[in-house]
Amino acid sequence: MKRLFCSMLVCFFGISVVGAQNVAPINPNASKEARALLNYLYKISAQKKTLSGIHNVIGRMSENVDDLYKITGKYPAIWGGDFGFADSTHDIDNIKYRPLLVPEIKKQFANGAIVVMTYHQANPVMGEPTPFEGGVISKLTDQQWKELLTPGTPLYKKWCAQMDLLAAKLKELQEAKIPVIFRPYHEMNGDWFWWGGRKGSNGFIALWNQLYDYYTNHHHLNNLLWAWTSDKPKLGVEDFFPGIDKVDLLGCDIYPQKDVEEVYPQEWYDRMHKLAGGKPLALTENSILPTLQQLKKQPWVWFMLWSEKSFKLNKTEDIKTVFNSKAVITRDEIKPIYKNRK
């Protein structure tokens, strides 16, 4: 049966047998839509092409997608979104907009977009709504961290309640047969977010495994592809990697460093490429667009510009050049990934 399934993938998607053997999601019960999406990403990776994308804050939904269209005449292939964490004092991430999220994702998916979801989760000690600095950017004590990872404790229950809210939205998408590339707890090799900077088996990796188990075995969310996405992949990023069998995709968030001209060192790409072990590798947050020459040397499976910052830091002509390149895929160029897609 496994051989037959791999043969079908080869025929339908036109990828090699080697690629087909590596295409199974880490969740053995992953939906057919999630499997098809992962297979498509393997295909793009093998072709050394890059899907275009942009993140959209929950308070402005798809304004950034529309702004890109106004500039380039094309929509990005990837629609990125977030679940929010704040109140009206930081309205772009206001949790009051959550009821609008699923309808917007359904619209974007119907239009052909691939969905990537980020979650800037509030520190579970504080709960939500919370400010970004002092709430998402905050610390847990070692004792609080231990409690968070201990089922049945008050802090663990608070964490579960937060994750249940997001799970309810993801279940709505699952019922609509919409797969989601899910990138929880990003930039974990940094020490700014409350989940970051903790090495070892009882550190970040334990939290990653706890969430995967909770969403997969408790909530039965089978429409997710699990994307592990670090901050700048400097030496030591490997200490936060849960293992090749615990992730579907890898990626990293890269922004310019102060007083450093080179934005995308080849060393970083090579390190992540080695860590990926053949799994799709993405540029999961960026502000400066990589040039076409850089994409040739570093063929990320996608890039995701970070909201309005992208328009301030890139020249209009450079945006047009990248989005109109044959090496970069926009929404109109995505061939049907799912057999039931209209």
Characterize the structure shown:
It contains 12 helices and 10 strands. By secondary structure, it is an alpha/beta fold. It has a single domain, classed as TIM Barrel, CATH 3.20.20.80. Helix 4 links the parallel strand 2 and strand 3. Helix 5 packs parallel to helix 7. The N terminus is likely disordered.
From the N-terminal CA to the C-terminal CA, the straight-line distance is 29 Å
Helix content: 25-40%
Name of the CATH first level: Alpha Beta
Question: In which order are the strands of the major sheet placed?
Answer: 2-3-4-5-6-7-8-9
Uncertain runs are 1-22
What is the architecture at the second tier of CATH?
Alpha-Beta Barrel
Q: Which value, in Å, is the CA radius of gyration?
A: 19 Å
Order of helices and strands: HHHEEHEHEHHEHEEHEHEHHE
Helical/strand content category:
alpha/beta
Structurally, how many domains make up the residues?
1
- Shape by Cα distribution: globular
Mean pLDDT: 92
The fold-level CATH name is: TIM Barrel
Total count of strands: 10
Task: Name the CATH superfamily classification.
Answer: Glycosidases
Total helix count?
12
* Most strands sheet: 8 strands, parallel
**Percent of residues in beta strands?**
5-15%
